[in-house]
Design a protein that fits this description.
alpha+beta; Diaminopimelate Epimerase, Chain A, domain 1; 2 domains; 42% strand
C-alpha cells in the first residue's frame, strides 16, 4: 500500500509557523483503528484523512489519541493539498462531508476560506478548579460543545498564561480556549487553546475554536468581519467572517513535506 501523505503548515504564510497538520489522501475509507495508528505515528495535533466521494470528498480527523468531530486547520491543509496537487482546479471549491456536516473550502483572494457552522458559547458557571488550572480568574466563562471559553481582561493575561496542564487534563472537557480583546497589532482579539485531555497541551492555531470565537467577538465588538491572532509559540492569523449560522474562516497554508505512507 502506498498512500500520498503531506505535512502542511496551516494558517501560515511561511514554513514553520501556524499549525502543522498531516494530510493522507486515500483511495477509499480505511478502518478507524488504522487511521488512529497513522495519526499516532504522525504525532501532530491533527491528521486528516481524505478520500473521494463522487465529485466531492469525505474527511475525518484524528489527534494522536482520539478522533475529533471538527478540525479547522487540518481542513485548510486538506483543501490546500487538493488545490496544490491539481486534484481540484483553483476555481472549484473543495466540498468535504464530515461528522460536522458539509464543509466547503475555496479561494478568496490570497486566502483559502472555509465555510463552517457557527457555534457560539453558552454562558456557564466556571467548572471547579478552572481558575486554578489557568492561574487567573476569567471574567466570563462559556461552554461550546465539549470546550470551555474563558475571557480575560487583558491581552497580556492570555499571552503570558502558563496553565497547569496536569490539572487541565483532569477536567471533563476536550479543551479550554482563552481569549481577550487585542490592544493593537491589527487584530480584533487574541486567543490560545489548551487540550491536554486529547494529547495536545497547546494547539498552535485552532480553526474550530474560531467557530466559537467568531460569533462571541462579533457580538461584543459589533462587527461581522474580524481578524484573530492565536498567540502560541508558532502563532497564526485567522480571518473570520460571521454570517448567521455560518462562520467563514480564512487562512493561508504552506506545504513543508511530501511523501508516501507504505504501511
Amino acid at each position: 500500500m502506498s498512500i500520498p501523505v503531506y505535512q502542511v503548515d496551516a494558517f501560515a504564510d511561511k514554513a514553520f509557523k501556524g499549525n502543522p497538520a498531516a494530510v493522507c489522501l486515500l483511495a477509499e475509507a480505511e478502518r478507524s483503528s488504522w487511521m488512529q495508528d497513522v495519526a499516532r505515528e504522525m504525532n501532530l495535533s491533527e491528521t486528516a484523512f481524505v478520500w473521494p466521494d463522487g465529485d466531492e470528498f469525505q474527511i475525518r480527523w484524528f489527534t494522536p489519541e482520539v478522533e475529533v468531530e471538527l478540525c479547522g486547520h487540518a481542513t485548510l491543509a486538506s483543501a490546500h493539498v487538493l488545490f496544490e496537487s491539481g486534484r481540484l482546479k483553483p476555481d472549484r471549491p473543495a466540498r468535504f462531508h464530515s461528522h460536522s456536516g458539509l464543509l466547503v473550502a475555496g479561494h478568496r483572494g490570497d486566502f483559502i476560506e472555509m465555510d463552517f457552522p457557527s457555534k457560539p458559547p453558552t454562558p456557564v458557571k466556571a467548572p471547579p478548579r478552572l481558575a486554578e488550572a489557568l492561574g487567573l480568574e476569567p471574567v466570563y466563562t462559556g461552554q461550546n460543545g465539549s470546550d470551555y471559553l474563558a475571557l480575560f481582561e487583558r491581552e497580556q493575561d492570555v499571552r503570558e498564561m502558563k496553565p497547569d496542564m496536569r490539572l487541565l487534563r483532569t477536567m471533563e472537557t476536550r479543551g479550554v480556549c482563552v481569549t481577550a480583546h487585542s490592544e493593537g497589532h491589527g487584530f480584533d482579539f487574541v486567543s490560545r487553546f489548551f487540550a491536554p485531555a486529547v494529547g495536545i497541551p497547546e494547539d498552535p492555531v485552532t480553526g474550530s475554536a474560531h467557530c466559537c470565537l467568531g460569533p462571541f467577538w462579533a457580538g461584543r465588538l459589533g462587527k461581522k468581519e474580524l481578524v484573530g491572532y492565536q498567540a502560541s509559540a508558532r502563532g497564526g492569523v485567522v480571518e473570520v467572517r460571521v454570517e448567521g449560522e455560518r462562520v467563514f474562516l480564512g487562512g493561508k497554508a504552506v506545504t513543508v513535506l511530501k511523501g508516501e505512507l507504505v504501511a
